[in-house]
């Protein structure tokens, strides 16, 4: 019991130390990795919009043979120098560029489809890399070289020199993204138009690819080549759930990238046995799930809620209009006003008859309308309240204007119009309504125009 | 523009006056296609196309699917390499004349789920003018708004483009080309799948462009409206079957040559064309 408590205690201690940034090393790692997250979020935004998500995977995987070859060559030239991360990075850079260049050439000169081209190059380079790695393992220093970091990542292995490199690269990439923002967005949206306007799309595309390659490579050491693609793609994909604007999408993606790196590093500092790369990516994935669920512009929950609100609005309008249409034939249309509407009680079965709702749905509709003070139940049936009567007149008027519009502006069979009007009237805002009224000035002198079709189930239809 | 051409290419003193007027005439022709052949993977798509578009006219490119209409426009705009021949825009190569040419690609050629507003798309037409590394300013946005106003879309300026109808998206594309204030326009099927309001709006724009002396080349599918909308027509089916004023060229016989075996369609059409329009 006490040992469990001790473990928990020491974990909390570690977490506390990590969060308060006691250790110089944690601060360094945290700073570098957050910068990495920000720049990869930015570059990733354009990659995702260019539909080149898989390209990042090719970049990272094709780095592998370069790393192995750089190590072998360096060891041969001067034993012991193979561990230098700058030499390994140069190797990775060269072979990543080769890999990307190869996919671009395949895309340009052959009829092989994009995804196949990417998969072929990825397989080729990664296979080559794995084969070379077995050679590396057999060399005397191979095992200790820490080349495994490049595959699985180890954020804690970042040292101050690496952070400077990451910071510089991130700064350059961020500046480039800002400077080329409109050109890159045009490239992603409409490459052909960009080319017609005289942009060298090959150069722009190359710049974007180059940025993706650099960000991927500086991410290799901390996240590892298997997972670095997630760092590029998760933040922009998550950001898309929050906004419809490219600039905010880029900003949010950068923020999510930085945040997931920060959280990942802190967690892995507190729990040293967890692989940092995995924790970073998992933090990103958690932010992604949050965005997917709650993202303001396309998240599932806001969408579900607005759909519910919409259905609710439709249901209520239909109910009030049904009330109006039941009462309508009892009076002269010019004399109908809210007070007269209030005076009539409608038997529930008759109301149900007009609206064609399923019984249970009808119960819910009337209950909710009663709760909002639009209807009240008396012994003889449903009665409109003052608010309900005003709203019923309003809703019916809008509905009929739409019906008239559809009848006059498009040649529809009047029997079909009712259905069509239902869908559209709820989508109307007051501005559109005003425009519609302008079109139908004859019918819009504040009166409610008569319905262009026969209403079945109205109050007068049982007497005949 | 015309005058400056003469000035720069200093006409030698001994030359006949007619030579300079030839030069002058060449730079007045908005579009001159000279013996253009285009091939994809060694399979020819366009054969020896020769055509000169007159200034201030609306020109329709008409032909069956796969007849190379879009390819012709793309080869004019250097988007597709030519195997042979040359294209002159106002007497010069396209790459020196880009600012005088507006392009409306097919609406379906882009992903409309892209996170930009209608105004952002129109502003893209100004990017070249704004220049590298410079941001879009308030003044540019105002210019873009005016272009949106011309196509009747100013109320939708801040709407995300996926929330526009097909016709509205087409008008946004049109506004993006208008904002350039070019002299020659290429439009790839602007009438495809649009609503009646958009069709009217586009026709109005085409006519106002013609009134201000611009030339518009339009890939067009609806044979019934060719007579009504266009002054000139190019009948294309890999070769140029016929080209010239609509009243001379747009005949049932030429159409039969262009569309080959698809006679049923043509018979219907000629029946319709023979009947007086009463709707």
Which helices and strands, and how do they pair?
The complex is a heterodimer of chains A (464) and B (279).
Chain A: H1 2-19, H2 24-49, H3 53-61, H4 63-77, H5 85-109, H6 114-138, H7 148-152, H8 160-179, H9 181-189, H10 191-196, H11 201-223, H12 228-240, H13 246-270, H14 276-294, H15 300-327, H16 338-342, E1 345-346, H17 348-355, H18 359-371, E2 375-378, E3 381-384, H19 386-409, H20 414-425, H21 430-439
Antiparallel strand pairs in A: 1-3, 2-3
Helix pairs in contact in A: 1-13, 2-8, 2-11, 2-12, 2-13, 3-5, 3-6, 3-11, 3-12, 4-5, 4-6, 5-6, 5-11, 8-11, 11-12, 12-13, 12-14, 13-14, 15-17, 15-18, 15-19, 19-20, 19-21
Chain B: H1 2-8, H2 17-28, E1 31-40, E2 43-53, E3 58-62, H3 69-76, E4 84-89, E5 101-104, H4 118-124, H5 127-130, H6 138-150, H7 166-178, E6 184-188, H8 196-211, E7 215-219, H9 226-229, E8 232-237, E9 239-245, H10 246-249, H11 252-259, H12 263-274
Parallel strand pairs in B: 3-7, 3-8, 5-6, 6-7
Antiparallel strand pairs in B: 1-2, 1-4, 8-9
Helix pairs in contact in B: 1-2, 4-6, 4-7, 6-7, 7-8
CATH 2nd-level architecture of the largest domain in chain A? Orthogonal Bundle
Query: Would you identify the regions of chain B where 5 or more consecutive residues have pLDDT less than 50?
Result: 1-17
The CATH superfamily of the largest domain in chain A appears as ABC transporter involved in vitamin B12 uptake, BtuC
The gyration radius over C-alpha positions of chain B equals 20 Å
- From the alpha-carbon coordinates, what is the Rg of chain A to the nearest angstrom? 33 Å
Q: What is the highest CATH level, the class of the largest domain in chain A?
A: Mainly Alpha
Strand content of chain A: under 5%
Low-confidence stretches of chain A: none
Strands across the major sheet of chain A, in which order? 1-3-2
Query: How many helical elements of chain B?
Result: 12
Strand percent estimate of chain B: 15-25%
Assembly type: heterodimer
